[in-house]
Amino acid sequence: MTMTRTFTAIAIATSVFAGATSAAMAGPIETVNVSKNGIDVVPIQVQATGSKYNKIKTHSRKFGLKLYAKAAWGKKIKHAMVASGHAHIGEYTTDWHRNYSNNSRTFVKYIKPTIKISDVQFVGKNPIQACNAKLANHRNALTTGATTQVTAYFELSVTSKNLSSSGVSKNHKKSALWYPVNVKCLPKGTVGGFTN
Fold first, then answer.
1. 173 near 142, Cβ under 8 Å?
2. Which of 21, 29, 50, 194 makes a 20 to 30 Å CA pair with 15?
3. CB-CB neighbours of 49 under 10 Å
4. What is the DSSP letter of 195?
């Protein structure tokens, strides 16, 4: 009986604490999400010279993204920015026309930016490192070629404040996306110009 009461007391205390934490974390922005949009099968091509992979043949590539943010009741998303590492992909303010109205709490936008591969931020291995890791396990990759995968990183940041306003952290919220990208490790001797 005592043990049952103890567990009940712990459950109640935990529930109260969770409610208090949730209330404390509440802010003017309810939801922020950046996600992959559409089917994406175009690989990044990597070339080999000598005994290893050392050059990305693909100069740039399109990435399909869906940007979404929702403000709390009576608030607005006033500014949004999406980036990958040092690649500044897009910045949007309240003049985003069809995707935003003064009476709307939500921001939705579908984009397909073309980004230089050298500007993309990767989580873990970059394409060259991924191909050399593949080569370490499959020595015939230089002869026949191989396929692998890397992960690109994107981040959407939104605010309910005008950029000229000074706001606290609760007025800003971010969302991250780990975007899987196919990589084609070309057979040694493959030549050609950059591809998109």
1. no
2. 29
3. 11
4. B
Cα distances (Å, whole numbers) of residue 54 to 137, 151, 186:
17, 18, 11
CB-CB contact of 57 with 145 (8 Å): no
163: phi then psi, degrees, rounded to nearest 5: -60, -25
SS3 94: coil
Q: Determine whether 103 is exposed, middle or buried from the number of CB atoms within 10 Å of its CB (0-12, 13-18, 19+).
A: exposed
DSSP reduced 3-state for 176: strand
Cβ-based neighbours of 140, under 8 Å, separated by 6 or more: none
The sign of the dihedral angle between the CA atoms of 75, 176, 118, 116 is negative
DSSP state of 42: P
Any idea which of 66-70, 85-89, 99-103 has the lowest mean pLDDT?
99-103
* The predicted structure's pLDDT at residue 25: 47
Q: Which of 53, 31, 32, 34 is nearest to 126 (CA)?
A: 53
Q: What is the mean pLDDT of the chain?
A: 78
Tokens encoding 112: 């397909």
- Looking at residue 58, what DSSP letter applies? B
Are 45 and 56 in contact by the 8 Å Cβ rule? The answer is yes
Query: Residue 4 corresponds to which amino acid?
Result: T
Q: What is the pLDDT of residues 96-124, one digit of tens each?
A: 444 455 556 888 889 999 999 999 999 99
> Has residue 139 got a pLDDT over 90?
no
